[in-house]
Amino acid sequence: MTSIKEALEQIGELPTHMWIAGQKVSIGSRQTIECRDPGSGQLLSTLPAGSKDDVAHAVSVAKAALKGPWADLLPKERGRLLWKAGEALHAQAAQYALVETLDSGKPLQDAKVSVQRAADYFMYYAGMVDKLEGTSVPLGPNKVAYTEKVPVGVTGHIVPWNVPLSMVTRGIAPALACGNTAVVKPAEDTPLAAVMLIELLEEVGVPVGVVNVVTGFGSEAGQALAEHPDVRHITFTGSVATGKKIMHAAADHLASVTLELGGKSPHLILGDADLDRATPDILAAVYKNAGQICSSGTRLIVEKAIHNELVDRLAEKSEAMQIGHGLSNPDMGPLISNRQLQTVVGFADRAKGRGIDFACGGNPARVASNQGGYYFEPTVANNIDPDDELAQKEVFGPVLSVIPVASVDEAIEVANNTDYGLAAGIHTKDITAAMRFAKSVEAGQVYINGYHSSGDTVPFGGFRDSGIGREKGLAGLDAYSETRAVTITL
Ligand code: NAP
Ligand code: MG
After folding, report:
1. Residue 133 is a catalytic residue
2. Catalytic: which of 35, 178, 294, 360?
């Protein structure tokens, strides 16, 4: 394994600043945020906690940049810049992956995939820049009507800590493709790669001020960004509670929002499922990123005929999982912070108090080589009532809630029995049952016989409390343009 010291040497200097108007803005007299390695608790870097004034400065710079050289670029030139950004990020993927692993704890192999995905967003949307066409509308012989797409203006991006870099680029790549400018507020826990990225964008030729990053606390910098009257669209990924605050703030100046919020996503395993295929898929769906993915398959709804056999298999495989520091490429890394670890411990302890049966796990995990890290055991909580807290609330940790059911109809009813509606999966050989499920489940994405199999070009977002709007794919462009309709009387 690469040691933390070796990784830090390979990375070189970590950011200790934010980035506004092409300038490093360092701590000065500001408060600070501490950026720690969740695998060891080690302090990696200290950055400025941006103030309301810093946000106002960044927004004014981004507003001015809307009228600068950025606006004069031909669509193909803007597309080329995005493509170059993707290429540059791919070329530096190994270095960025080390940063993502140290900052967020994820296994290095997963960090590489998410950095490559971050780069792919630029390349995907690069190809769209010169294809953002309008329409013409027939109004008879004496009139001509057409529509054109124009940028919405300054866009704000408030980003969570679970997949830090690719959550930034899945927002700013389509925003830039549509000709907007951006101010990014990364999560206080994981700001490093976002700051590095903005420097990289300017190195490949994106004009100064088109993208700015204000590091800091959500309650101050994030709130100020959502409230700023010159921010015309806010893209947010995170918790439901914060999403509501952002929508309230946006309402005051009638900005639009894209909200990608939490989930308690059902994963149905019908009696006829191929368990050799389903078992690793169930484990990946819930344990990937230590369960800290909004769309994790956390409610396992199982037909009774296979319930015991499947739980035995899951417990055996869970107990065999290697847990460790992300740099050692384990099966599962740490949680993001001690705060998140305590949240997960709280869920487990309350469940024990209610007499819930854990087929495995349920406790913080000891990793001898990294005792300062925030590790939790892969956990299978069995025989969960569909209304129990473990079937209703987002844990955001490696905890699977198993709910046995008697029939497909009951499985579908239980699947829809939450306030969320982000993702849903099913394993079955029965195409009719799979399609009945796909048509009746209230979820933004449905996975049949392969959870999380859609990649980064398929639209992604939630029904109900899981959010508003779509990111990724062509649908991910919709939020970033206004339509101007022009009617000419001849
Ligand atoms: P959060 O509060 O929703 O944070 C997400 C982002 O919003 C961060 O950048 C945060 O800044 C910022 N923020 C916080 N308060 C804000 C405000 N009033 N106005 C504007 N921005 C604000 O999430 P969290 O507290 O880190 O995690 C709590 C729970 O959220 C998790 O346990 C999980 O259930 C859920 N979550 C969901 C996702 C997802 O992918 N949907 C991702 C992360 C978390 P700070 O970093 O400074 O707080
Ligand atoms: Mg960190």
Report:
1. no
2. 294
Which residue's CA is the nearest one to ligand 1's atom 28? 239
Is the separation of the CB atoms in 21 and 208 below 8 Å? yes
Cβ(439)–Cβ(138) below 8 Å: no
- pLDDT value at position 368? 86
Same domain, 393 and 412: yes
The torsion angle over the Cα atoms of residues 121, 126, 127 and 133, rounded to 10 degrees, is 110
Q: Which atom of ligand 1 is nearest to the CA of 263?
A: 41
Tell whether 461 is covered by a domain.
no
361 Cβ closer than 6 Å to some ligand 1 atom: no
- Catalytic residue, chosen from 220, 227, 260, 303, is 260
Residue 378 in any domain: the answer is yes
Give the total number of structural domains in the chain: 2
* Sign of the alpha-carbon torsion through 416, 289, 340, 472: negative
Q: Ligand 2 mean position to 442 CA, how many Å?
A: 34
- Ligand 1 pocket, residue 187 CB under 6 Å: yes
CB 238 near ligand 1, within 6 Å: yes
| 176 in the same domain as 240 | yes
Asked whether the beta carbons of 50 and 18 are under 8 A apart, the reply is yes
* 255 and 271 fall within a common domain: no
Claim to verify: residue 236 and residue 282 sit in the same structural domain: no
Task: Say which CATH number the domain at 285 has.
Answer: 3.40.309.10
217 lines ligand 1 (CB under 6 A): yes
Structure tokens belonging to residue 79: 């597309």
Same domain, 143 and 56: yes
One domain, residues 218 and 337: no
The β-bridge partners of 242 are none
Q: For the chain, which residues score pLDDT lower than 50?
A: none
What is the domain extent for residue 19?
4-261+467-486
Q: Which two tokens stand for residue 422?
A: 């982000």
- Coil, strand or helix at 398: coil
The Cα–Cα gap between 29 and 26 comes to 9
Longest dimension (CA), the chain: 80
Closest ligand 1 atom to the C-alpha of 159?
Answer: 9
Q: Tell whether ligand 1 has an atom less than 6 A from the beta carbon of residue 245.
A: yes
Q: Is 360 noted as a catalytic residue in this protein?
A: no
Surface-to-core class of residue 157, CB atoms within 10 Å of its CB (0-12 exposed, 13-18 middle, 19+ buried): buried
pLDDT tens per residue across span 294-347:
999 999 999 999 999 999 999 999 999 999 999 999 999 999 999 999 999 999
